[in-house]
């Protein structure tokens, strides 16, 4: 019996982006727990490299997951590769719940990270390939919203569980990670396959019907469907002629797309927002907030994250990607420099650690009053700027720049870049809080300024363009990135051309492809 298929793109996105919720759950499963006495005592007050290894274990697994995601997705499809990854999440969560030491905790987080590596690489690809050009940003941004909802929900689950005595506090919290994965497993079989992937593997009839069901209520003669289908076939033929192998990632201008897709993900990490996302509880304690006040203050930040990303959901396809990336990096850099400068001028060193019991990762405290308020305020403001700009746009841009034949593996390379730097920074930040304290924020402030220059020089505007049009923007002889503008898609003209042909009774090249014998069976 064939399961019914959901074709409403927003409902499809909500189900598919539960993969993002897994990412969010795993982030907060550590950030809400690391400051609790139960965690500190049971794991023997892990600090420096040990805490860095625990925090970055997710990224380590994600590096592996994102590396295999492309070939896996090209072979079995975007949807089924996500379904396959869920098995590792279930196993990893079970290991975390039952862990007896730091090594087992790290192993469980690595397994969970393998799942996140695949979902973070392929969910944006899947959403980009089913979306209309003018709605692609608002659809892909649902992935970022899912991540943030996962962070918020898991954070307050962890906060609530902190009132449970003994190891049951963190074991109960980590056990709730089963829930979003089960819902994802149940929902995925009802989603359509990507029409572009279907065309790529030669299932043309199914590809056209899926495209029609998503965009035109099943009407394969709709001008939009025909125009998009003709673009897909033209681009796919060109890529078949270009050949196979890793060489296709740098030949004929492809290196520009490879550089853009991988570097935009690297800069999302190097901009330093995850220092705040992962370790705001540490910063709150540095600013003199303790106990429930520190926990609730940190949790509110995650709600702010969601609110402002939701605001951007309304405007993401009306504002250029370049604009948001450049000004977002500048704004984040300013916030980092203010936080670092304030800490440097108004803090006291505590080599034994801050807190009760002392947390060995927090060795400075900021003076009470205006300095502490400034640190908290600009930490919040940094998250606001990040949620409006780099947080959603880096994932959207990385999903848009690839060609049809390279999109799955290309997005895997982009996600791989994200997770490599995520892992490196995860290992760097806890020791850096101990060794260079406030200078961590100065480092990230400078990196944000460099990122803004990089975005302006190298990234053409992709907002409002079809995925096939974006290929031309990276081709040899294309207009300079800083001269490109949002919108101005050629798809409207192609739709008008198809409509004119239909009115004249000319259907050459517009009929549905003949099903193969295998498909007829």
Automatic annotation (TrEMBL):
<protein>
    <submittedName>
        <fullName>General substrate transporter</fullName>
    </submittedName>
</protein>
<keyword id="KW-0812">Transmembrane</keyword>
<keyword id="KW-0813">Transport</keyword>
<feature type="transmembrane region" description="Helical">
    <location>
        <begin position="293"/>
        <end position="316"/>
    </location>
</feature>
<dbReference type="InterPro" id="IPR005828">
    <property type="entry name" value="MFS_sugar_transport-like"/>
</dbReference>
<feature type="region of interest" description="Disordered">
    <location>
        <begin position="500"/>
        <end position="521"/>
    </location>
</feature>
<feature type="transmembrane region" description="Helical">
    <location>
        <begin position="410"/>
        <end position="434"/>
    </location>
</feature>
<keyword id="KW-0325">Glycoprotein</keyword>
<comment type="similarity">
    <text>Belongs to the major facilitator superfamily. Sugar transporter (TC 2.A.1.1) family.</text>
</comment>
<feature type="domain" description="Major facilitator superfamily (MFS) profile">
    <location>
        <begin position="12"/>
        <end position="463"/>
    </location>
</feature>
<feature type="transmembrane region" description="Helical">
    <location>
        <begin position="323"/>
        <end position="345"/>
    </location>
</feature>
<dbReference type="InterPro" id="IPR050360">
    <property type="entry name" value="MFS_Sugar_Transporters"/>
</dbReference>
<dbReference type="Pfam" id="PF00083">
    <property type="entry name" value="Sugar_tr"/>
</dbReference>
<feature type="transmembrane region" description="Helical">
    <location>
        <begin position="378"/>
        <end position="398"/>
    </location>
</feature>
<keyword id="KW-1133">Transmembrane helix</keyword>
<dbReference type="GO" id="GO:0016020">
    <property type="term" value="C:membrane"/>
</dbReference>
<feature type="transmembrane region" description="Helical">
    <location>
        <begin position="172"/>
        <end position="191"/>
    </location>
</feature>
<feature type="transmembrane region" description="Helical">
    <location>
        <begin position="81"/>
        <end position="98"/>
    </location>
</feature>
<keyword id="KW-0472">Membrane</keyword>
<feature type="transmembrane region" description="Helical">
    <location>
        <begin position="7"/>
        <end position="36"/>
    </location>
</feature>
<dbReference type="InterPro" id="IPR020846">
    <property type="entry name" value="MFS_dom"/>
</dbReference>
<feature type="transmembrane region" description="Helical">
    <location>
        <begin position="258"/>
        <end position="281"/>
    </location>
</feature>
<dbReference type="InterPro" id="IPR036259">
    <property type="entry name" value="MFS_trans_sf"/>
</dbReference>
<dbReference type="GO" id="GO:0005351">
    <property type="term" value="F:carbohydrate:proton symporter activity"/>
</dbReference>
<feature type="transmembrane region" description="Helical">
    <location>
        <begin position="110"/>
        <end position="128"/>
    </location>
</feature>
<dbReference type="InterPro" id="IPR003663">
    <property type="entry name" value="Sugar/inositol_transpt"/>
</dbReference>
<dbReference type="InterPro" id="IPR005829">
    <property type="entry name" value="Sugar_transporter_CS"/>
</dbReference>
<feature type="transmembrane region" description="Helical">
    <location>
        <begin position="440"/>
        <end position="459"/>
    </location>
</feature>
<feature type="transmembrane region" description="Helical">
    <location>
        <begin position="140"/>
        <end position="160"/>
    </location>
</feature>
<feature type="transmembrane region" description="Helical">
    <location>
        <begin position="48"/>
        <end position="69"/>
    </location>
</feature>
